């Protein structure tokens, strides 16, 4: 994922799951996100609070689920009569899922979040043979290096932020015999480490090219540098001793807002160009989610000032009247007439709801997904965009 401009700290409104990445496909081209019903092929515990869930891909859909390491999928189900969507990164290297016609399986890691409706349900109820709606892979949290020979890639992850880094590390190391990967992975204790055995196996497979550093905030390690929370002082010491910025070609950061922001600020301060830093966010907040398959009900009273929002999706255009006083988002308006309008997190994080603003103007409350060049070309996050002109025209198909 090319560098993104992270909005100033407002993480209390970031959605639960990660994903500050724009919609993309394995070829690098943008593609329309679509749900398909997939069967659960395996559920494997990772820790007491996390599991890897593997989905079988029917032969006729394998092309739809081709992906790049670092991309994610959205999962959709209905709980207590309400539609719930959550996004999860694909955790296996691309070649691990199948042959040349697309992957036979895809896998995600789900970690239980305190109060998380979807994660609690998934970890307690989801079983082999169950079926779930899974969106085609999206996201650009992927390597931009054209040639991995001799490349040094570094990642800093916290908790479930390891998920995309697992796929990225395995892919970078497998694709070139001279590439290197340095991974700094922080957790509270050893029992919280996801993919502990897989990381050890990866280290055994590439002993000289993978540098793996576990940092535990609540467990004493032999090296004092690896014991304690990663704050600015500890991060600078890590950059001085374990992963020298001058040697790194590309950085991947994945974790909660505070850690990602700290890493980005510190890397910038030591001279790392922003275009070499890619990131994803996650947090455990549940607030601000769109849980229903249709938009929030809005009534238009007679003689009330309205904005006219026109949306084009799959070649069909619809016009919605939105009361000025409702301060309605473009996505909410679209969902009232097009329940199939694409979205996942509804928090400005995943980029699934991306569309191009053809006419009019909007303000975006949050933007953790769009690149500066995408903004320059008129793209918006419809979940965060509120019309500021009487007529707004957006196109999901461009």
Short description:
The chain has 398 residues and is an alpha/beta fold. The protein has three domains: 22-135, Translation factors (Elongation Factor Tu (Ef-tu), domain 3, Beta Barrel), CATH 2.40.30; 152-281, Nucleotide-binding domain of ferredoxin-NADP reductase (FNR) module (Rossmann fold, 3-Layer(aba) Sandwich); 306-395, Ubiquitin-like (UB roll) (Roll), CATH 3.10.20.30.
Model description:
It is built from seven helices and 20 strands. The chain has 398 residues and is of the alpha/beta class. It has three domains: 22-135, Beta Barrel (Elongation Factor Tu (Ef-tu), domain 3), CATH 2.40.30; 152-281, Nucleotide-binding domain of ferredoxin-NADP reductase (FNR) module (Rossmann fold, 3-Layer(aba) Sandwich); 306-395, Ubiquitin-like (UB roll) (Roll), CATH 3.10.20. Helix 2 (162-175) links the parallel strand 9 (152-158) and strand 10 (180-187). The longest helix is centred in the middle third of the chain and has 14 residues, at 162-175. The chain is globular. The two termini are 20 Å apart.
CATH topology of the largest domain: Rossmann fold
Radius of gyration, in Å, reads: 21 Å
Compute the average pLDDT. Answer: 87
How many separate domains make up the residues?
Answer: 3
Q: What percent of the residues sit in helical stretches (DSSP H or I)? A: 10-25%
Number of helices, where a helix is a run of at least 4 consecutive DSSP H or I residues: 7
Approximate strand percentage: 25-35%
Q: Quaternary status of these chains?
A: single chain
**In CATH, what is the class of the largest domain?**
Alpha Beta
CATH superfamily of the largest domain: Nucleotide-binding domain of ferredoxin-NADP reductase (FNR) module
For the largest beta-sheet, the strand count, sense and barrel status come to:
6 strands, antiparallel
Broad structural category: alpha/beta
């Amino acid at each position: 994922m090319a560098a993104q401009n992270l909005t100033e700290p407002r993480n209390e409104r970031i959605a639960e799951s990660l994903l500050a990445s724009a919609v993309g496909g394995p070829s690098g081209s943008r593609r329309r996100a679509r749900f398909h019903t997939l069967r659960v092929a395996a559920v494997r515990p990772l820790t007491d609070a996390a599991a890897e869930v593997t989905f079988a891909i029917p032969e006729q859909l394998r092309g739809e689920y081709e992906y790049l390491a670092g991309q994610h999928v959205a999962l959709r189900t209905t709980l207590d009569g309400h539609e719930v969507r959550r996004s999860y990164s694909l955790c296996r290297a691309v070649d691990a899922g199948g042959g040349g016609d697309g992957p036979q399986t895809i896998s995600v890691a789900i970690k239980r979040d305190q109060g998380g409706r979807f994660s609690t349900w998934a970890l307690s109820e989801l079983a082999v043979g169950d079926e779930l709606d899974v969106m085609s892979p999206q996201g650009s949290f992927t390597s931009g290096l054209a040639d991995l020979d001799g490349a040094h890639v570094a990642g800093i992850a916290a908790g479930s932020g390891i998920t995309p880094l697992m796929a990225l590390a395995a892919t970078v190391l497998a694709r070139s015999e001279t590439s290197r990967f340095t991974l700094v992975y922080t957790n509270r204790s050893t029992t919280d480490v996801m993919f502990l055995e897989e990381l050890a196996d990866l280290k055994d497979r590439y002993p000289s090219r993978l540098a793996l550093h576990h940092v535990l905030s609540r467990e004493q390690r032999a090296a004092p540098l690896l014991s304690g929370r990663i704050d600015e002082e500890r991060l600078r010491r890590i950059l001085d001793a374990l992963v020298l910025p001058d040697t790194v070609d590309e950085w991947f950061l994945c974790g909660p807002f505070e850690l990602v922001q700290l890493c980005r600020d510190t890397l910038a301060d030591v001279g790392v160009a922003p275009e070499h830093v890619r990131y994803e966010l996650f947090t455990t907040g549940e607030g601000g989610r769109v849980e229903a398959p249709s938009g929030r009900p809005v009534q238009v009273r007679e003689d009330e000032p309205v904005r006219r929002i026109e949306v084009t999706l799959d070649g069909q255009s619809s016009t919605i009247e939105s009361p000025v006083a409702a301060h309605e988002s473009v996505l909410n308006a679209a969902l009232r007439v097009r329940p199939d309008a694409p979205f996942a997190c509804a928090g400005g994080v995943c980029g699934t709801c991306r569309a191009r603003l053809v006419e009019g103007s909007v303000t975006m409350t949050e933007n953790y997904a769009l690149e500066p060049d995408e903004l320059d070309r008129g793209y918006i996050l419809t979940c965060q965009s509120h019309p500021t002109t009487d007529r707004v025209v957006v196109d999901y198909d461009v």
